[in-house]
Design a protein that fits this description.
By secondary structure, this protein is of the alpha/beta class. It is built from 10 helices and 10 strands. It has a 5-stranded parallel beta sheet, with helices on both faces. Strands 2-1-3 form a 3-stranded parallel beta sheet, sandwiched between helices.
Length: 281
């Protein structure tokens, strides 16, 4: 079975669009993306976010700042945007220039507008299993699993990767859903023994086509979080899709799997943040 993130994301966005229409909001929800360092990958991703936001009836704004901006000035500018009542969701586009630490910048965002889910308050909500604006990629993965009626309760799940964006929050979300979670990284010994023994594999290790048929069992459900540009300009995931697609029980492609779910979840978080701020339910 192919876990089609495009289809799941499309259905989620349609649901949000209909909900926005039904609530008859006086002001359109506004998502603002802060861009400091321009590169083709960031601009492409921003374009996708803007497109999806406008499709559901939201406003989108790109706040550009020069790459020479100081840490302190960027923090002040983000804090100013965050205090604007017409802005309901605010994100900071990574990567940032080397002289800027992203974490203090994120803490300049009002947590109720932190639709990326990276602030201390939102991480705390996620840790405790409380309702909040959870990190978009792992939350999107859970939505994708739910869409295909894949229950994680009591299942063994291995997560390959320990990043703050995917690996760590994914651990917590699955633990809160009663999954048995094994966290793996580049120093994990006997990795293939682990990957063959689990029910679900979530691969976010940052290496193209890293996971191969020899590392999985036929009953495995594989979620590919990777996005790697090859020498010929094409993209592939961290999973060798052609090697595994006819072998495992279910697999998400890359591109076309987790990526669309991340963007759709960002839009979902923005709509949720708007409703919380306007107390519209």
């Amino acid at each position: 079975m192919i876990l089609d993130g495009k289809k799941c994301a499309s259905d989620l966005l349609e649901k949000i669009k209909n909900d926005i229409i039904s609530k008859r909001a006086v002001w359109k929800p506004m998502l603002v993306d802060v861009l400091v360092w321009e590169n083709p990958a960031s601009l492409s991703y921003i374009h996708m976010k803007e497109k999806r936001a406008r499709e559901v009836g939201m406003q989108f704004r790109l706040a550009r700042f020069p790459s020479s901006i100081s840490q302190e000035d960027l923090g002040r500018e983000v804090s100013k945007l965050s205090s604007d009542p017409s802005i309901h969701g605010l994100i900071v586009q990574a990567p940032l220039p080397k002289h800027i630490d992203i974490f203090p910048v994120i803490e300049s965002i009002d947590p109720t507008k932190d639709v990326d889910g990276f602030s201390r308050l939102q991480i705390g909500n996620m840790f405790l299993g409380h309702d909040g604006l959870w990190s978009c990629t792992p939350k999107g993965i859970l939505t994708l699993l739910d869409y295909y009626q894949i229950d994680v309760v009591w299942r063994k799940v291995a997560i390959l990767g320990r990043s703050n964006i995917v690996g760590k929050p994914m651990d917590l979300m699955l633990i809160n859903r009663w999954a048995t979670v094994i966290s793996c990284n580049s120093h994990t010994k006997n990795l293939s023994e682990i990957t063959k023994s689990v029910d679900i594999l979530i691969v976010a290790i940052g290496l193209p086509k890293f996971l191969t048929k020899e590392m999985v069992s036929p009953h495995s459900i594989v979620i590919d979080v990777g996005s790697n540009r090859l020498d010929d300009g094409s993209f592939c995931g961290d999973v060798d899709f052609s090697d595994l697609s006819d072998f495992v029980s279910a697999i998400s492609p890359s591109p076309g799997g987790v990526g669309p779910m991340t963007v759709a979840t960002l839009i979902e978080n923005t709509w949720k943040a708007y409703q919380n701020q306007k107390m519209i339910w």
